[in-house]
Design brief:
α4 crosses α5. The longest helix has 24 residues. By secondary structure, this protein is of the alpha/beta class. It is built from nine helices and eight strands. It has an eight-stranded parallel β-sheet. Bound molecules: pyridoxal-5'-phosphate. The site of pyridoxal-5'-phosphate has 13 residues, from β8 and α9.
Length: 239
């Protein structure tokens, strides 16, 4: 029996190999997609094991749990990505403890993160979450409202607008997975044109945060630059 630490290193290696293969299949350069290890509901020891195997970027969904782990792992130089839904009264600890936020979907949250970002931490790297399939219960901005939100966020000095994020519905068919992800890529191009035209950005959005354990290959084929992988690295979550 191998211990958990070896398991995590082994699984990370496998996921990195799959990312490499998908990038090759897409005709993209080998370093054009980053891996974010999603460590929600997993202990700090699991994160330490992944960090020992070279992983730097970690994604967390639940604020209190995340902050406990960030504090406990301060001795490692990790990059923390907030990928969960954001309540507007809980923005301060996100602004103080995270490097990236993937789930901005309204001005109020962006404004608070901007106002609460400590000056000594530099700008917060942010993505706008898009509700691509107009699901009633899901967070994310509706696609037709995206340009206005992007223009507003692009003007906020303590935020750096880096790209878009989406969580599509589970879909077994890879071609259909790709089709949905390609819509996010198109939206990014459209919004980038607007931002450049409005002189709000000379450096358009370069990030597409899309792809999880079950649709990672499709996301990379459609242009993902940041895949968010939990189960394939840390194993199934209990709840
Ligand atoms: C949990 C989660 C992931 C990782 O999902 P897996 O299927 O375990 O890879 C990625 N993104 C978000 C937003 C999540 O909440």
């Amino acid at each position: 029996m191998t211990d958990a630490k070896d398991d995590i290193a082994e699984r990370l290696k496998k996921v990195r190999g799959e990312i490499h293969d998908a990038l090759g299949e897409a005709g993209r350069t080998p370093d054009s997609a980053s891996l974010i290890a999603v460590s929600k509901q997993k202990p700090a020891s699991a994160i330490r094991a992944a960090a020992a195997a070279g992983q730097v970027d970690f994604g967390e969904n639940y604020l209190q749990e995340a902050i406990d782990k960030i504090r406990e792992l301060e001795d490692l130089s990790l990059q923390w990505h907030f990928i969960g839904p954001i309540q507007s009264n809980k923005t301060r600890p996100i602004a103080e403890h995270f490097d990236w936020v993937h789930t901005i979907d309204r001005v109020r949250v962006a404004q608070r993160l901007n106002d609460q970002r400590p000056a000594n931490r530099g700008p917060l790297q942010v993505l706008l979450q898009v509700n691509l399939q107009r699901e009633e219960t899901k967070s994310g901005i509706q696609p037709e409202l995206l340009i206005t939100l992007a223009e507003t966020v692009a003007k906020m000095p303590a935020l750096r607008l880096r790209g878009l994020m989406a969580i599509p519905q589970p879909e077994p068919n890879v071609d259909l997975q790709i089709a949905v992800f390609e819509r996010l890529a198109q939206l990014r191009d459209t919004v980038n044109e607007e931002l450049v035209d409005a002189k709000l950005s000379t450096k358009p959005m370069d990030v597409l945060s899309m792809g999880m354990t079950d649709d990672m290959r499709a996301a990379i084929l459609a242009g993902s630059t940041h895949v968010r992988i939990g189960t394939a690295i840390f194993g199934a979550r209990t709840s």
